[in-house]
């Protein structure tokens, strides 16, 4: 491929006679079919110009006093090459190069361009993605920090500054209260008008709770904005996990939802939560999340975490004392310290068998994780279909287990059911069974199912009212309409002028953390090991299998 030698005159200036003077000279070798980007790269390397911080204007002159011609694209390069082919002398048609600060690629300008791509808050749009888009769309190379600042400017133009967002809270809460009458909405500030807490319980949620089981699951998710905090699963914003904050939260919760018979709370039993529940709800049961409890076991007794994990979770779910004692015996044989620790916590705090108030299937406070891991397909359904499918799955499972059981009637309501060498007593008048599943889950167990099949009776009549379609529909019968547009908000002047300042906050050194810190039990989990597809044994693959080598 043919090449052309080109003279570069740079670092000079134009005289009053329009001549380029006081310049320096360098030379490059340009390919005949070079593109504009090739030319820019050649000159930048020759002159040691950082294109992420500078931009170049490339011009050439035909005659000494003529106006210079600018090369700005591939067509300009081709025209210049044709001129050079006519006269290939080194000094003819020299390129005049000007290097300037790239003032066009500011963070504000780029932020305005990328703002539409950040309106979807779920989209992951990293600074490196911004750099790629700017290079492809604008032909400008920017560094990582400029891309990061551009993203911050774009987010600020969309959502405003974090400090200003606190000032919008009074108007927003006022509009919520007017749009959803009967809601319980409260905000608390310091004497200096600094934000502390906000509690939001919409009227639809309060009415829906009347048709739900009296189980309150409390969990918090830490906020990662400019001013950190905690988002509590019962829809509240909280400053931090401390005694005053949690006490205020449960006071508002009690005022909104009240106190019901057989009510219980499930949480990670943080010290502040324990104090708050005992202060505000001193007559209800407070259960422990078994996931958090087991994390504490792993932290305190490290050698026991893997061997006893399955035993512990099974023990928390069993329905009979016999099964519980067998499993606890295994725990004692392996590590008596774990047994003593679980006794100290109290069996009634984590084992379904010993729970004074039925807690149903709610044994952890990690509701989102439980739904994601066990209901992958059903979670995409509408809420009614989702709950109905879960209910039907339990019935089908119990029906499949009842196939080989025999039934002996005692009265019209009491039956003896035998299977797998054991006998159980089912009472349909009280909806109970000696296996404890019937009364705890509120759904006919396998033994009750066997009786229902034999008597040709429908199981729906013996399920808890919480699982009936009528109750499910009543839970969601109060609609939640969208808020009106901000332009239509009619906010009184005393609300609009209310001052809410951001909380006192000291920024921690280093990069802000976006992910939850993992517990010791998560780090100590054994990673999956490879197994050989030839012999089926672990710790090697078919390429290094000695059995396959001997057979060959």
SSE layout:
Layout: E1 3-10, E2 13-14, E3 20-21, E4 24-31, H1 36-47, E5 54-60, E6 69-71, H2 74-86, E7 95-101, H3 107-114, H4 127-138, H5 144-159, H6 162-167, H7 169-179, E8 184-189, E9 195-201, H8 203-209, E10 215-217, E11 220-222, E12 230-232, E13 236-238, H9 243-257, E14 264-267, H10 271-280, E15 285-288, H11 290-300, H12 309-317, H13 321-334, H14 336-345, H15 347-350, H16 367-374, H17 383-401, E16 406-409, E17 414-419, E18 422-427, E19 432-433, H18 437-441, H19 446-455, H20 469-475, H21 493-496, H22 520-523, H23 546-551
Parallel strand pairs: 1-7, 10-14, 14-15
Antiparallel strand pairs: 1-4, 2-3, 5-6, 5-7, 8-9, 9-13, 11-12, 12-13, 16-17, 17-18, 18-19
Protein name: SWIM-type domain-containing protein
Keywords: Metal-binding, Zinc, Zinc-finger
GO molecular function, one term: zinc ion binding
Summarize it:
The protein has 552 residues and is an alpha+beta fold. The chain is elongated and about 115 Å long.
Describe the structure.
Keywords: Metal-binding, Zinc, Zinc-finger. It comes from Solanum verrucosum. It is a single chain. This protein has a 5-stranded mixed β-sheet, with helices on one face. Strands 8-9-13-12-11 form a 5-stranded antiparallel β-sheet, with helices on both faces. The protein is α+β, with helices and mostly antiparallel strands. It folds into 5 domains: about 5-100, Phosphatidylinositol 3-kinase Catalytic Subunit, Chain A, domain 1 (Ubiquitin-like (UB roll)), CATH 3.10.20.90; about 105-160; about 165-370, no CATH class; about 380-475, no CATH class; about 530-550, no CATH class. A hairpin with a 2-residue loop joins strand 17 (about 415-420) and strand 18. The protein contains 23 helices and 19 strands. About 40% of the residues lie in helices and about 15% in strands.
């Amino acid at each position: 491929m043919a090449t052309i030698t080109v003279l570069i005159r740079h670092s000079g200036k134009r005289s009053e006679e329009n001549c380029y003077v006081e310049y320096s000279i360098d030379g490059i070798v340009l390919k005949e079919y070079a593109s504009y980007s090739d030319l820019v790269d050649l000159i930048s390397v020759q002159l040691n110009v950082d294109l992420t911080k500078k931009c170049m204007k490339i011009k050439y002159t035909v005659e000494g006093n003529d106006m210079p011609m600018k090369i700005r694209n591939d067509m300009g390069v081709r025209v210049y090459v044709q001129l050079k082919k006519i006269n290939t002398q080194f000094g003819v048609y020299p390129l005049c190069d000007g290097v300037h600060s790239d003032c066009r690629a500011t963070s504000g300008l780029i932020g305005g361009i990328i703002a539409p791509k950040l309106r979807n808050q779920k989209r992951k749009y990293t600074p490196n993605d911004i750099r790629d888009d700017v290079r492809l769309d604008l032909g400008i190379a920017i560094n990582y920090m400029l891309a990061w600042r551009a993203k911050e400017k774009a987010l600020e133009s969309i959502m405003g500054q974090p400090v200003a967002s606190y000032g919008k809270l009074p108007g927003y809460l006022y509009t919520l209260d007017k749009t959803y009458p009967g809601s319980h909405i409260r905000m608390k500030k310091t004497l200096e008008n600094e934000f502390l807490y906000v509690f939001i319980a919409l009227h639809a949620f309060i009415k829906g709770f009347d048709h739900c089981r009296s189980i309150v699951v409390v969990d918090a998710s830490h906020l990662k904005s400019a001013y950190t905090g905690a988002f509590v699963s019962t829809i509240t914003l909280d400053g931090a996990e401390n005694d005053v904050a949690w006490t205020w939260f449960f006071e508002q919760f009690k005022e909104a939802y009240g106190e019901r018979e057989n009510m219980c709370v499930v949480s990670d039993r943080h010290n502040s939560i324990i104090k708050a529940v005992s202060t505000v709800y001193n007559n209800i049961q407070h259960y422990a999340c078994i996931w958090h409890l087991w994390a504490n076991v792993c932290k305190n007794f490290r050698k026991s975490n893997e061997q006893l994990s399955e035993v512990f979770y099974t023990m928390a779910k069993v329905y009979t004392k016999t099964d519980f004692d067998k499993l606890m015996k295994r725990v004692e044989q392996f590590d008596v310290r774990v047994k003593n620790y679980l006794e100290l916590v109290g069996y009634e705090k984590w084992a379904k068998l010993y729970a004074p108030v039925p807690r149903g299937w709610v044994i952890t406070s990690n509701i989102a994780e439980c739904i994601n891991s066990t209901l992958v397909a059903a979670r995409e359904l509408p809420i009614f279909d989702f709950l109905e499918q879960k209910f039907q799955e339990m019935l089908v499972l119990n029906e499949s287990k009842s196939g080989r059981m025999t039934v002996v009637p005692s009265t019209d309501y009491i039956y003896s059911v035998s299977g797998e060498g054991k006998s159980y007593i089912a009472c349909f008048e009280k909806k109970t069974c000696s296996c404890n599943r019937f009364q705890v889950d509120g759904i006919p167990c396998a033994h009750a199912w066997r009786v229902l099949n034999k008597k040709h009776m429908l199981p729906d009549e013996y399920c808890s009212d919480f699982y009936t379609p009528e109750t499910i529909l009543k839970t969601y019968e109060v609609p939640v309409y969208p808020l009106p547009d901000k332009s239509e908000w009619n906010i009184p002047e005393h609300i609009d002028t209310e001052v809410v300042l951001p909380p006192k906050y000291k920024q921690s050194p280093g990069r802000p953390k976006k992910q939850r810190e993992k517990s010791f039990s998560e780090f100590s989990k054994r990673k999956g090991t490879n197994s050989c597809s030839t012999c089926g044994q672990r710790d090697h693959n078919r390429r290094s299998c000695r059995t396959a080598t001997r057979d060959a």
